[in-house]
Design a protein that fits this description.
It is a single chain. This protein has 221 residues and is of the alpha+beta class. It has one domain: Alpha-Beta Plaits (2-Layer Sandwich), CATH 3.30.70. It is 16% helix and 21% strand. The chain contains six helices and twelve strands. The strands form five sheets. It has a four-stranded mixed sheet. A two-stranded antiparallel sheet has the order 2-5.
Amino acid sequence: MTRYGMAIDLKRCFGCQTCAAACKVANNLPKELSYNVVYTKGDNDPTTFGVAVARGAVANDNAGGKFPNCTLGFLPMQCQHCEKPACLAVCPTGATTKDEETGIVSVDGELCIGCESCIKACPYEKVRTLISDSPEYYLDVVVGESDAPPHKSGTVEKCTFCKNLIDRGEVPACMQLCPGRARFWGDLDDPESEVSKAVAEREHTFLHEEAGTNPSVYYLS
């Protein structure tokens, strides 16, 4: 068994949005949909990163505080692929599933009815999106991986941990071009994996730890 997880180094992330762009292209995501975003925070205290992201800046790279005592931090956000996902129990059709072999939480677009129960149950802000209308794209051609997930109206989508890439022995798209090398990936149950070593060596925190979902995304401080 494998329990995939990711560690994100908040000291290395400088908000370039490369991870978000790589994810957008690799998954051929329509205009309204993002699996992976980087929020600007008006402080650099990692202990506050569990609060609602709405308290962050309204635009990229807006510092918080009052000049000259300004602070700036960044919070990469995606589905946390929880060990105990709150979304799983509320899905009425079984569209939301957790792979017991990998720990990856997925949404089956064929079973999803767009009821948004998973969105309301999830304690993590804006990691799931309901595609309300027919998807529109920036380009007239399909981009990204040949086996990127399909997108259709009336369904909820979210980060897949790039399961299609993982199955081929690759790493998630968000890691491939990160210039700050701020992300670590691997099997959380393997003490020799890159992510396990990063977590063991550094102080870390989770988003909304009080929710009891046991996220698989660690934030290194």
